[in-house]
């Protein structure tokens, strides 16, 4: 057998095994074409044609993503004989390895959580849901950087029915969101909840909901227990991420803002209350009884300035008539009083009175 035949895809020479999962083994490998170290995830389980197509589509989507917190996908194969992913090699361990030594420093957990939340926000912006966020899928490099991995595995596992070698259907119930446990609609909010459980485990070094049917039901009746005394940014983030109702849960972007200290509060918009339908004014009962039947009265007319025109015209006519009367009315005749006779005094009084009476009678 030639050396070329030992190469995965005729290009990648497998080295030591770095880890194993339910469906795949991860190997250190050498890309003989580019002469660089890579991580090769080789799937042990076979998938049907539909599963291979879905896996190939997912691998192409992941190859189009570019973010510092994502393990880059370099190559893939969905052939019948070879089913593998070639990814960026991260030297280090997983977040699960870090929690094996006890609770992590809360400030460090907040820093890691903020970076992972920003990564999830980028993934969600590209309309991709991870659906399998857990400590073993978070890689911690020797330089302290955190990477979110295993997108292709979760998608491929769904396509293949999540079957193990024994044919049993399995799932990571430990970090599932309530809507996943209750077979509800799974969206981006489920990833946020899962990340919240991962960060909570980092702080407490305790699995909040251990695997099993009882644990799956527990999150539906008991909220996660968030410890007191942790940094406020971490506590605010966990409270918002671990809301049971996905509609009340914060987004990955908001979680990143809280955990990274870019904001201290997330204000959700409150929808305005519905406007009540207009109702006609209430009519007193006595007046309503006196009102004639509907349809007997003409429709009320709106106010306008037209009724004032006849009034103004009538007023003008009255003024004109009054002016004509003043001009045309004959002046009254003034009676002539006889001339005064004699000097004023008591002796002339009877004559003056007689003259005044005659003038009035005329």
Can you describe what's shown?
It is rod-shaped and about 165 Å long. It is of the alpha+beta class. It contains twelve helices and eight strands. Helix content is 38%, strand content 13%. About 7% of the residues have low confidence. The longest helix is centred in the C-terminal third of the chain and has 21 residues. It has one domain: Orthogonal Bundle (Transferase(Phosphotransferase), domain 1). Its EC number is 2.7.11.1. Keywords: ATP-binding, Kinase, Nucleotide-binding, Serine/threonine-protein kinase, Transferase. This is non-specific serine/threonine protein kinase. It holds the Pfam family Pkinase.
Outline of the structure:
The protein is an alpha+beta fold and 362 residues long. It has helices at 49-64, 95-99, 106-125, 151-159, 178-181, 188-204, 213-221, 232-241, 252-259, 285-290, 308-328, 349-361; strands at residues 12-20, 24-31, 36-43, 73-78, 83-88, 92-94, 138-141, 146-148. Helices cover 38% and strands 13% of the residues.
